[in-house]
Structure formats: C-alpha cells, structure tokens
From TrEMBL:
Active site positions, chain numbering: 169, 210, 359
Entry's localization field: Secreted
InterPro entries: Galactose-bd-like_sf, Kexin/furin, P_dom, Peptidase_S8/S53_dom, Peptidase_S8/S53_dom_sf, Peptidase_S8_Asp-AS, Peptidase_S8_His-AS, Peptidase_S8_Ser-AS
Domain P/Homo B: 436-545
The enzyme's E.C. designation: 3.4.21.94
Protein name: Neuroendocrine convertase 2
GO CC, alphabetical: extracellular space; membrane; neuron projection
Record's signal peptide: 1-26
Function: Serine endopeptidase which is involved in the processing of hormone and other protein precursors at sites comprised of pairs of basic amino acid residues. Responsible for the release of glucagon from proglucagon in pancreatic A cells.
Length: 545
C-alpha cells in the first residue's frame, strides 16, 4: 500500500534523445538499398569503384572488422517488402566480392520530444493532452520533454495493475465516473466520521476537493472519455478521510497512518507481507519561510519525501528545501497560464486544470512507484528508495539559490530537488531486473555529550570520528540515511542553522534559518535531522560542519 499526505510536491523530467526498437516490421521484412559487402583482401582498394560499377553512390569502410564495406545508394529511396535478388546476385557474381548482406530496415523511435498525437496511447480522455506532467510537448508554455516519462512505462506494459494507493486526505469522491472503477472500498475508511465511507463533506466552496484531485492523478481510468488519465491508470485507489475536521488528534493521525497495516515504523517492516508499506510524503508548501527537515514525516527515513517543480524546470515559490528530500515530480506555482496547473478529477464528477501545491506532486510519485511495483511486486520499501536515487535525473531542473552537486560516489543531488525528477520508464526497467538490497544495519557513529557554547561569532564546530561499527555485526559499509540528533538551547529557534559534512566531503544543510521559527523559543530538544545526500558513501572517517 502506498500512502501520502495532504502536503505534496512536484518536479520535471527531460527524456533522453536515444533510440529504442519500435514494433516489429512486416512479416516479410522491410528492405533497403543498402548492402554490407565483404571484399577479398586484394580488392579492398577497389571498394569505391565497385560501388560505382553497381550503381551505388560510394562505399564506406567499416572500422569494426577487416574487409567490410557499406554500399549506400545515391538517393534516399523508399523501402521495399521484398529482397532485391537481382541486385544481390550481381554483387555476388563480382570477383572482388566475398560475401553480400542485404540490409533489412528496423523502426526506431526517439525517447526525446514526441508529438502527443504520435504516441501510441490512443487515449480519448479530454484532458489527456493537457496533462503536461505525463507527456510534456510544450503545453502551457512549458519545456518539451519535462515530464515523468510515463509513456515509456506504459509502452512496456506497466499501468499499476495489482497495486493500491491509499490517499490520506479529506476523502475521495468514489462515485466519480473516472474513479469508481478503480476504487478499493475494502482498503478505505473514514476516521473523521468513524465509518467505511470516506466521502468528502460538502461545503459551498468545494474546500474538500483535495483528496479527489489527488486520486485522479494516480488512478483515473483511461480511455473512458472522462477528465484525464492517472499515472497508474489500472491501479486501485483507497480513501483515508482524516483531514476534514477542525483539529487533528494523535488518535486520528495514528489510526489513519496505521490503517492497513500498522503504524509507520511497523508498516515499513511488517507491511506488504514483510516487504514494507511505502509511504510517500510531500516536502511541504512553506517556501523559503520554512524547512521541511522540521517536518517529522518528511524528514523520516521511513518515508519517501517528494518536492516539486513547475513545467519549465524551476522550483515552485512554495517549495520547502531540506536534505531529506529524495526526489521530485511536478506541480504549478509561478505560471499565469490557466493550463499550467495539474489536470485531474474534481468533486461531483467534474474535472479541473488547477490542482497545485506540493500536494499535487506526491500523488504523481505514488503513481510512478505503483508502476515499479507492478514490474516487480517483491520490491521492499528500501528497494524503492534505492531505485528512486538511481533512476531520478537532474534533467533541466534548476534553482537560483541551490545548485546541483555530486556526493562522494558521484551521485548528483540538489538541496531542493533531491536526486532529481522521477523517471517512470527508467524505474520500471531497473525494477524488473532488481535484486533485493542486503539487510539494513544501524550504527551510532558517535556523540558529543558535554554542553558546548556557541562562540561570539555565532558558530560552533563539532566533529565526530567514526569507524561505522567496523568489526561488529552492524558494520555499515554503504550509507542510506544519516541522522543527526540535536539538542540546542536558543532564544529563537528560527535563527538556527545546522550543517554537516561527511568524510567524503559531501555537505548537507540539516537546518536553515527560517522565518517560520522566529517566534518559537526554547531551541531544540533531541530533534533528529536527516540527510539522503550521502547515499552510497563509506561513513568511516571524520564528520564535521
């Protein structure tokens, strides 16, 4: 089960300009006027003359074998359905020729920019062409190719079948004609009203439309001529209604998170038959005034924290930054174009083009993970995080403040975007061949227990030398998550800035100064800040500021 909260995030993707095999050619093959010939050794100097004698433009010597030449025609000629037996026979009869190979044609398609009408998706849903986060052709003044690369995953046959995404929000309009066929009632519950029907509470301003919009992003049905298409349009979606009340309680929150199966820490260890439930969390909408490492769920190692980008690769103005963010997807937040938002389902059978916030990004990530789980149902919660790190890409994501850097093992990351935008095609291909990661170990690197004072210049430097528990059963050789548990006495919490540098030299901003904390007094007590930026590094050595 995939679960995510109300606060979402977004990002963008650039497709690689490489070629992949297209559909098989006709039964008898497609043949060209290109020939591969092998000449006798004494005739290699006559290759050009041979080509001219037989009506070709010229011959190009091939570098990968002795005596091979490519004979190519003078003009671009149409392909044929039959072999040119006469042409081949004349070449074979030439005393200079040892072997002849007529070249068969194969279709190839680019993974880069493709016109949406050329993609073999055959979607008749009216908003599909406006879902730029699925296939970005430059709609709404966006950058062509900046998308989730779902088309490649779909073409490989992965649509989320067999996976359920549970949305913890203000309910789901499960009667919506674009959601009803994919609604999983058994996995749904209303913790606000304590009944099994998480339908949104009516308000005149449609305030409780959020969960329904998120549901459409992941599981809206395809080819039903209604609204748009979900990232994983054959997945099931469940509703966990828990945000629609004037206050939140520990009981409501814990019950919602623990619904099928247990609480979050137990969920990643016991859920899905021991493989672990996968929790997708939005990095938050506080913008530069806040820091998502202060969000206990976004900064948890048990969740996959997702941030957002808009359709030209920039950050949204509401994006929070932190070192716990693993990757990004898409949303809106700057563009005035009315179609630059996220197109999806809305309350009471309606559709919308205006879904936004990091709330619109996390559902997209959940949809991508559903595609990967269909490709390999045995993926554990840690496998999914590894796949996220290894297949996400920088593409054209950019920010004026936070630049892209590489960690100690060469992985490229950004303080805002994590390891980049999710690539659905790349993830399902890697997931299909993925072998489960080894057992997870936890090691306490060291600690500084005695109180230290911050100097007059406002700085305090602490270092810890760690052997990463070498020689013990819990020896850590390969980093995934690193936590720094911090206690600080301060008059204003928002003035604090905490940095950490790994032995490999990778710098993480664990906490940045934030206006949202200016009024909070008392500092921090045993707060665990987490970074994913050191993923894959060897933890042995000196950790510092």
């Amino acid at each position: 089960m995939l679960e995510f909260s109300r606060d979402g995030a977004t990002v963008t993707l650039i497709l690689l300009l490489v070629t992949v095999p297209a559909a098989a050619s006709a039964e008898e093959g497609i043949f060209t006027n290109h020939f591969l010939v092998e000449l006798h050794e004494q005739a290699e100097d006559e290759a050009h003359q041979l080509a001219t004698d037989h009506g070709f433009d010229s011959a190009r010597k091939l570098p990968f074998a002795q005596g091979l030449f490519h004979l190519y025609p003078k003009d671009v000629t149409p392909t044929r359905g039959r072999r040119s037996l006469q042409h081949r026979q004349r070449l074979e009869d030439d005393h200079r020729v040892k072997n002849v190979f007529e070249q068969e044609g194969f279709g190839r398609t680019k993974r880069g920019y493709r016109d949406i009408n050329d993609i073999d998706t055959n979607m008749n849903d009216p908003l599909f062409s406006k879902q730029w986060y699925l296939i970005n052709t430059g709609q709404a003044d966006g950058t062509p190719g900046l998308d989730l690369n779902v088309a490649e995953a779909w073409e490989l046959g992965y649509t989320g079948r067999g996976v359920t995404i549970a949305i913890m929000d203000d309910g789901i309009d499960y009667l919506h004609p674009d959601l009803a066929s994919n609604y999983n009632a058994e996995a749904s519950y209303d913790f606000s009203s304590n009944d099994p029907y998480p339908y949104p509470r009516y308000t005149d301003d449609w305030f409780n439309s959020h969960g329904t919009r998120c549901a459409g992003e992941v599981s809206a049905a395809a080819n039903n001529n209604i609204c748009g298409v979900g990232v994983a349009f054959n997945s099931k979606v469940a509703g966990i209604r828990m945000l629609d009340q004037p206050f939140m309680t520990d009981v409501i929150e814990a019950s919602s998170i623990s619904h099928m199966p247990q609480a979050m820490a137990d969920g990643v260890n016991k859920g899905r038959g021991g493989k672990g439930s996968i929790y997708v969390w939005a990095s938050g909408d506080g913008g530069s005034f806040d820091d998502c490492n202060c969000d206990g769920y976004a900064s948890s190692m048990w969740t996959i924290s997702i941030n957002s980008a808009i359709n030209d690769g920039r950050t949204a103005l509401y994006d929070e930054s932190c070192s716990s963010t693993l990757a990004s997807t898409f949303s809106n937040g700057r563009k005035r174009n009315p179609e630059a938002g996220v197109a999806t389902t809305d309350l009471y059978g309606n559709c919308t083009l205006r879904h936004s916030g990091t709330s619109a990004a996390a559902p997209e990530a959940a949809g991508v993970f559903a595609l990967a789980l269909e490709a390999n149902p045995d993926l554990t919660w840690r496998d999914m995080q590894h796949l996220t790190v290894l297949t996400s890409k920088r593409n054209q994501l950019h920010d004026e403040v936070h630049q892209w850097r590489r960690n100690g093992v060469g992985l490229e990351f950004n303080h805002l975007f994590g390891y980049g935008v999710l690539d659905a095609g790349g993830m399902v291909k890697m997931a299909k061949e993925w072998k489960a990661v080894p057992e997870r170990f936890h090691c306490v690197a060291g600690s500084v227990q005695e109180p230290r004072k911050i100097a007059s210049d406002g700085k305090l430097v602490l270092t810890i030398d760690s052997d990463a528990c070498q020689g013990k059963d819990n020896f850590v050789r390969y980093l995934e998550h690193v936590q720094a548990v911090v206690t600080v006495n301060a008059s204003r919490r928002g003035d604090l800035n905490v940095n950490m540098t790994s032995p490999a030299g990778t710098k993480s901003i664990l906490l940045s100064r934030r206006a949202a904390g200016q009024r909070l007094q008392g500092g921090l007590r045993q707060v665990a800040f987490m970074t994913t930026h050191t993923w894959g590094e060897d933890p042995r050595g000196t950790w510092g500021p």
